[in-house]
Amino acid sequence: MRKSIWQYFDWLLLLIVVLLTAAGVAMIYSATLGSETLADTWRNQAVYGALGVVMLFVVASINYRLLESLQWPLFFIAIVTLILTLFFGSSEIGQVRRFIYIGGISVQPAFPALVLMIISQASALSRNAPNAPGFQEMALSLGMTAVAAVLVYLQPNLSTATLYVAVWGALIFTSGIKVSYLSSLGLAGVAAIPVVLPLLPEYMQARILNFMQPDRDPWASYNLEQALISIGSGGLWGKGFASGTQSQLHFLRVRHTDFIFSVICEEVGFIGAGILLLAFGLLLWRMIRIAANAGDLTGQLIVVGVAMYIFYQLLVNIGMNLSVLPVAGLPMPFISSGGSSLVIAYIGIGLVQSVSMRRKRLEF
After folding, report:
1. How many domains does the chain divide into?
2. Can you say whether residue 252 is alpha, beta or left, with left for phi > 0 and alpha for psi between -120 and 50 degrees?
3. Nearest to 260 by CA among 185, 183, 341
4. Which residue range is the domain that position 318 belongs to?
5. Is the pTM higher than 0.85?
């Protein structure tokens, strides 16, 4: 008798992301306590988390190999979505065009577009499997990524554009492409840095300069100083849930989104933050394990792309909170407030589950 594909569903992976989401809801509640304008933020996050779980099961039930055959339609949808964002997008910050509002709900199209790009890229890089992709596949993949990343950069959104590049780099490396190609790409990237930096908008250059010279702009470095105070004052065990002075007295700005890791460190301390990072480590390990057991290169690349999507945001967000990386607007996955980004993260995990459930080539 043929066994159900659901026997390969990774329930531990689901449990981890649900627990991370629950921790995020709790910390958002603490970070927004006493703020009338943000009073419902934690409830909304919980609702989006529940929706995310539903979407995870829906996506997991779809055979990722069917999505593979839709490489170009998915890429076209991603690009059109990013173009529409440039024309109709808006934000609370000046002329920034990052969000599209649908019925009062804000969606940041760059994230769902990246998930579509992961599927398209996985299909493009695996079309010669089991042979490694050649120069033509690499060039095609690079061109696809460049078009999407430039459109995101024009919003302007440099941090998310670098996320596109990071995901592409992980896919290229995993695809087994020749080392000579990788070396050439690496050298070209390094050589492009001094050319690209002067072309960045003034505020982007200012962020980099402020990171290198914190005393250059005391106002810009204020929140970074508050973040470090929050992290350092938490000590080993923290000050207690909803008892952090920097967050509860609102010294720390954007504490429920970009700087929620600082709130976590202040209130639950080194131990609590360590447990959280251990959970993320377990999450990434489960995904790497699924990638290693994938039935084909396409599935492997999809899982690696989603894993890098989560890891890069985590790395940049924590690095920003610790002042070891420039300030960037990337959320802490499953933890930071943001409904659309949370649902998209769950959809990504749904793709991972789809690969896990179909680890043998003939299983549908």
Report:
1. 1
2. beta
3. 341
4. 5-186+202-357
5. yes
